[in-house]
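Here we describe the complex-level prediction in full. Unlike the single-chain runs in Section 2.1, the two entities below were treated as one system.
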Amino acid sequence: QVQLQESGPGLVKPSETLSLTCTVSGGSISYYYWSWIRQPPGKGLEWIGYIYYIGSTNYNPSLKSRVTISVDTSKNQFSLKLSSVTAADTAVYYCARGRNPDVWGKGTTVTVSS
Amino acid sequence: EIVMTQSPGTLSVSPGERATLSCRASQSVGSNLAWYQQKPGQAPRLLIYGASTRATGLPARFSGSGSGTEFTLTISSLQSEDFAVYYCQQYNNWRELTFGGGTKVEIK
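The structure predicted for the assembly as a whole is:
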C-alpha cells in the first residue's frame, strides 16, 4: 500500500527557507494530486498547497508569496519550500495524497527558532 | 475563501451513545466535503468523502450526510477508539481548500 514519508530539517532559523521532501513508496506518484498541510501546536489543520504530478500547482493565498511546491517523478518525490519563515510557521507538516487526502504521512515537526 | 465552521467545539459523549457533529460552509460546496479523524500524535485519517461515502474499511457506525452548506457526521454508537478530534474540509473550491476548526469528541 502507498506510504508517504516527510523528511527535512526539524529546526529552521527565522528569515530562512524551510525545505521538506515527501517520498512516496508502494505506488506511483503519477496521476495524483499531492498536498502539503500543516498543524501549529494545539491548533487545527491548514492547507498549504498541492501539486499535480505533471507540475501544476495551487497554493493557499495567505502563503502564496512564500511557497513553492515541486515534483520529481523520477524519484517519486514532491517537495515544499517556504521562505522567510517566522515563529508562526512552527508546526507539524504533513504530506498527503489528493485534494481530499486519503493517504497521509506521519508528519514532521518543524520549529522556527534562532 | 470558503469558511468552514464546525460545532460544537467539544462534544462530551458516553461510550455507546450517538454523536452528531456539524459542519457549515459559508457558501455552497455541493457534495465536495470530507471528514477526517485525528487522534493525539497521529496524522488525520480520511473517514468520509463526497459528503456521505465512507472511506475503505470504515465501520458502518460512521455516516455522513448533507449537501450545499450544511453537513453532519454521525457516529451511531461511540466506541473507545472514536474519541478524537474530527475535521471537515471542503474541496469544491479547488483553488483554495479549507478545513473547519475541528470538534473534539471526549468521554463524558
